[in-house]
Amino acid sequence: MRDDIINILKNSKKALTIYELQDKLDLHDVSKVKELSEELRKMEEEVIIYCSNKGRYMLLEDSHLRKGILRANKKGFGFVEVENLDDDIYISSENMNGAIHDDFVLVEITSKVDIDRLEGRILRVLKRPNHRYIGEINFDSKGRGHITLDDAKIKLNIQVAKEDSLNAVDGHKVVVELIKKLNNNFKYSGRVVEIIGHKNDPGVDILSIVYKYNINTEFPEEVKQEVKNIPMEVKDMDLIGRRDLRNMEIFTIDGDDTKDIDDAISIERMNNGHYKLGVHIADVSYYVKEGSPLDEEAMERGTSVYLVDRVIPMLPHELSNGICSLNPNVDRLAISCIMEFDHDGKQIDYEIFPSVIRSRIQMTYKKVNSILENNIIPEGYEPYEKSLRLMAELADILRKMKIKRGYIDFEVDEAKILVDENCKPTKVVLRDRGVGEKLIEDFMIAANECVATHIYFMSLPFIYRVHEVPKEEKLRSYLSFVGSLGYQVPGDLKDTSPKTVQKIISYLEDKPEFKILSSLLLRSMQKAVYKPENLGHYGLASQCYTHFTSPIRRYPDTTVHRLLRTYLFDKKLDMGTIHKWEEKLVYIAEHSSSRERASVDCEREVEDMKMAEYMEEHIGEEFEGMISSVTSFGMFVELDNLIEGLVPLRDMKDFFHYDEEHMTLLGERSHIKYTIGERVLVKVVRASKEEKIIDFEIIRKL
Prior knowledge:
Blueprint: H1 2-11, H2 18-24, H3 30-45, E1 49-51, E2 57-59, E3 65-72, E4 78-81, E5 89-91, E6 104-109, E7 119-127, E8 132-139, E9 145-149, E10 157-160, E11 172-181, E12 187-198, H4 204-212, H5 221-228, E13 243-244, E14 252-254, E15 263-269, E16 275-282, H6 284-287, H7 293-301, E17 305-306, E18 311-312, H8 317-323, E19 331-341, E20 347-358, E21 362-364, H9 365-372, H10 385-405, E22 415-419, E23 425-430, H11 435-456, E24 464-466, H12 472-484, H13 498-508, H14 514-523, E25 529-531, H15 555-569, H16 575-616, E26 622-631, E27 634-639, E28 644-648, E29 656-659, E30 664-667, E31 673-675, E32 679-688, E33 693-701
Parallel strand pairs: 5-7, 10-12, 13-20, 14-21
Antiparallel strand pairs: 1-2, 3-4, 3-6, 4-5, 6-7, 8-9, 8-11, 9-10, 11-12, 15-16, 16-19, 17-18, 19-20, 22-23, 24-25, 26-27, 26-32, 27-28, 29-30, 30-31, 32-33
């Protein structure tokens, strides 16, 4: 009946009463009429339909109500993000109706459609995804605990009785669970469910953020037991059905401190002059059996999380750093993708098969770059110089081929925060991205495309890494802003192919503010996600792409390996297997995308905190930087090491007018104009690790 109701309302030009619905459904039996009434009540409760004051029913999207996620601001107001709505709905603090940050809410649009900003009021909270919060506990004279929440956007007043405090003391960071609402919308009683540690203990600051994003730091007991039963060396029985590549020259290239090594590579020049590239990936799914406690925990985690001083792994260390890691001079199980490329970078042939390998050496990017960039050969690398130079030759060809088809390199820098043994930041530098890093990136992209394309043409259920085409209005808005800076980018925006964005990047790359403009352009793109359908990868200009090369640290890659084993090696192609994966991959893709977002947000928040902590030691000092963003409340300045701080309007010596279209601030008396991309000299006037903020003061333009 529900589907019939939805179809009738969808095709109706007006809202319908229950009697009109009854007629259209041709219901005359009393029990059927009662069933209709009950179904309408349920659909209204689930916010699928809306019933007006006059008793007329319509689909929610045809009404002035919307469902969405509230993103609150620490000042009390917020915005509701609604799917398929271009603009967020502004909610003032008096219209929050007890909703807090991240709540799924029902919102009424109260503003007129033709005004600049959509405004609304929250009618009710449909779902509160979180009932546990992180904060610092302190006790009053009556023994009641009061929680100061870490996230200033969450406006909750939580009290904890002494008996519900787990014997926490003043200054403990705790996980608190809500028990019940007290006398107003934001006042709750709660109980402490876990003590993270004292706020002054080393590492507790990072752990508090990790807990906030529901990232598991410990493995369940059943997982630990399962790991104990996994052999930590390759046995003869493991080699059945595998191709033996142990005599082949295979090696790994990673960062200096990498311990979880997913990928190894090999190369040879063929008799016909072509390149034979081998990408050998740790066969994680051989050890992580589908449906086991280990597999369930890996799926729940979704990804490893890389923080400034630690890694929270998707798999226990015995696997991630041990039997699954492609460590040198030991036998390891792999899935190999061997590809033949011609001199133009075209793939001529390929094979995908299970293998056993033995890596010859664990190379580092730094030492590989010393060979390929400076012609200095580190000790122990002499036997591999020829192979490395051949790899660099092929990588250069592959990159040119990708650029020719529209591959977009935003050239966005990344910061690296160096810390001491107490996790106190000592230096913030830019991450290196040399020839070695790009070489591995090019080879992994080639393998990912090869695997994805093979399964795609078999028309089997699969998980893809997709990056959809950007919305035309976002690109128009970006180009309008770039035009306000005096740059007229050539090209036709009707063509939203990757080559259009590539041309924009190419035109801007020699401009002084390129790094900021490139970063802004990247923000106007869609986010890359996992999906069970192939929608292509826009940024890579790839028609078919997946993640195959990092199964130790990403669950989608582990799933891809499992599917390769199912389809290619075990030849399980029956309808039962296909239907199972059609259903399962929908959840895996959605959940993996969600956990990836949580991981990225966690990593970013930790970096913001550590950068603020670093700048606490530099208050009063002056730095050069570039204006990275201009807002109605001030402008952000990014230093050359990527530390970003705010110059608040309230601290500026003139009254500045904000021009949103051109992203500029203009002084009323001084007529000084600040524009995004300008270089300035700033002084650090405020920094707070707890609030994760840095405030600058403008000294002068440069």
